[in-house]
Amino acid sequence: ESDTASEISFQFNRHKKTPSIGSHSSDMASVSSVSGSVLSVYSGDFGSVDAQGMVEFALDYDEKNREFQVHVSQCKDLAVVDEKKGRSDPYVKTYLLPDKARMGKRKTSVKKRTVNPIYNEVLRYKIEKMVLLIQKLNLSVWHNDPLGRNSFLGEIEIDLASWDWSNRKLNWYPLKPRSLSAVNGVDHRGVMSLSIKYVPPGSLGKWPKNPPSGEVHIWVKDVKDLLQLRPSGVDSFVKCYVLPDTSKKSYQKTRVIKRNTNPVFNHTIVYDGFHTEDLKDACVELTVWDHEKLTNHFLGGIRLGLGTGLSYGISVDWMDSTQEEVAFWQEMMLAANEWIEGLLPLRSL
């Protein structure tokens, strides 16, 4: 049923009460270091002001240096965040969509106590023109708060495929409220087809006890509609951990499927060492990555578990399964020795 199979043991001290803070897999830690807020264009928004005002900027592509340039000139008539003091401390932030993590964010300096800030700064992205043309530019304006409670002031989104690249002049654009799709968390990254199965201890034979400990089988079939980072597609592979175990023994990965946004992996992983009660506290993390020589880029992932926020009585941020992921895991728990099929959307984790 699969071209490759691997078996590894689930290792965790079930009585341990003081694990290191932030028990992420090493890969998730590396994702968060790509950018200060790769998880959402609107991360850290604590404000409730209405978008108003305008922003002046120009776009250009430097063919010689293969560089996309956003010349942010100024803003005017921005919303006032601190009404008591009648002030805003605005800055401008940009992303290339749909993959915020890959290119990261760029932002201007903060201009204090003004609703008419002047920047005259250039935000730069090293990117091939063909790749740029399948992106959208999200440019947003924010109020900077010393405690990190930043407030959204407005945005504009531009489809770069239809942009007039002969237009290099500074122009004014009205700031708009955040897009409805972003507010609702719509962040389409693809869909993973997989099956999972739990084999309880001794369920396959009484003597000798077979298996000696419980097993979780994970069959990664394929992924559809991955983000197309290059005109040729992506070179993708899947990583797997069973959290809270982030050791090398827990880590498994598929082979790389090149130049394909709909890769077929057909890869099975078996984790043994499970007690039935472990299923309430463990979480299977499957993440999809684009393979490159210098660094791999996160494309999306899923977390299979009960989504309680707790693991062995300890609060953890990775136990955050969605309703679909929880239902999938629960179905596996209730149907021992049966393959449970699922089609789950990848998310930003």
TrEMBL record:
<dbReference type="InterPro" id="IPR035892">
    <property type="entry name" value="C2_domain_sf"/>
</dbReference>
<dbReference type="InterPro" id="IPR043567">
    <property type="entry name" value="SYTL1-5_C2B"/>
</dbReference>
<keyword id="KW-1003">Cell membrane</keyword>
<keyword id="KW-0268">Exocytosis</keyword>
<dbReference type="GO" id="GO:0005886">
    <property type="term" value="C:plasma membrane"/>
</dbReference>
<dbReference type="GO" id="GO:0042043">
    <property type="term" value="F:neurexin family protein binding"/>
</dbReference>
<feature type="domain" description="C2">
    <location>
        <begin position="51"/>
        <end position="173"/>
    </location>
</feature>
<dbReference type="Pfam" id="PF00168">
    <property type="entry name" value="C2"/>
</dbReference>
<dbReference type="GO" id="GO:0070382">
    <property type="term" value="C:exocytic vesicle"/>
</dbReference>
<keyword id="KW-0677">Repeat</keyword>
<protein>
    <recommendedName>
        <fullName>Synaptotagmin-like protein 2</fullName>
    </recommendedName>
</protein>
<keyword id="KW-0472">Membrane</keyword>
<feature type="domain" description="C2">
    <location>
        <begin position="188"/>
        <end position="319"/>
    </location>
</feature>
<dbReference type="GO" id="GO:0006887">
    <property type="term" value="P:exocytosis"/>
</dbReference>
<dbReference type="InterPro" id="IPR000008">
    <property type="entry name" value="C2_dom"/>
</dbReference>
